[in-house]
Amino acid sequence: DQTRFRDVLLSIQIVPYGDKEKLLISRDITRFEKLEIMRRDFVANVSHELRTPLTVIGGFLETLLEENKVPGEEEKNALQLMFDQAVRMRRLVEDLLALSRLENAGNDLVEEKVEVAKLLQELYQEAQSLSAGRHTISLDLDNQAMLLGNEEELCSAFENLISNAVRYTPADGTIVLGWKVKNGKGIFSVRDSGIGISANHISRLTERFYRVDRSRSRDTGGTGLGLAIVKHVVNRHQANMGITSQLGTGSIFEIRFPENRVFLTEQAAQADST
Ligand code: ADP
Q1: Is the CB of 262 under 6 A from ligand 1?
Q2: pTM above 0.90, yes or no
Q3: Does residue 194 line the site of ligand 1, with CB under 6 A?
Q4: Nearest Cα to 257, choosing from 226, 233, 274?
Q5: Tens of pLDDT along 48-83?
Q6: Does residue 142 have a pLDDT over 90?
Q7: Is the CB of 86 inside a 6 Å radius of any atom of ligand 1?
Q8: Largest CA distance in the chain
Q9: Is residue 61 within 8 Å of residue 83, measured between CB atoms?
Q10: Given its phi and psi angles, is residue 196 left (phi above 0), alpha (psi -120 to 50 degrees) or beta?
Q11: What main location does UniProt list (predicted)?
């Protein structure tokens, strides 16, 4: 069917528009929508099916390496390479699954009051271990405000931004994780003194598999899906994301949550009014 992937032109009309006229083109995009649903289902199914074989392959390779069952150095190196690639594929599959789940979830969001400060303490520890002492990482929590949202999704969005800061900041750099309330809005931020991003790339960063430097992303364990995941979580929480960056100086990723999602404790209310 040649028209399978095409939309159907329904009508073209010229309609009045103030003292001018405008051209109104209507198209039936049902086919696009169907195709998009098929794509999402396919990705979700493939990712799910790949999970188990990858776990088995990775598990056996790890055992062989740990138990020193391979005689020669060359064989050991080859095995290590295979294991690293299996881990990478597993990470990719997990990210693809996470993205499919978010895409397929529609507007459903299981919400709870999330203690962001507590969550950030945990993510701070994770960042420390990922950085392995190469960076100075600090927390800037000026309140205990709670956030209405899905903790698992928020955690994965924050985690992605934090791990990016660690991965794209050379040794001796600084990273600051922040959570504050400003004019009633909840603002989560990650600042780094890393490699930065030039202006022409910024608007495309949240596209799936968009990377400024493919090999750097791969070398540091990236899948190219992190910011696409963040974008979905941000949209599902009616928040917005701001990216400010300068090449060679560093980046600031900020997620701003709307007032109706932020619950001020007394202490946080005082901080907000000063
Ligand atoms: P990846 O797995 O490649 O890091 P992401 O979706 O998380 O994928 O990010 C997309 C791209 O955005 C990255 O490949 C990198 O080029 C750029 N990027 C993201 N965060 C930062 C950062 N903190 N500093 C510099 N570049 C970044």
Answers
A1: no
A2: no
A3: yes
A4: 233
A5: 999 999 999 999 999 999 988 788 889 999 999 999
A6: no
A7: no
A8: 84
A9: yes
A10: left
A11: membrane
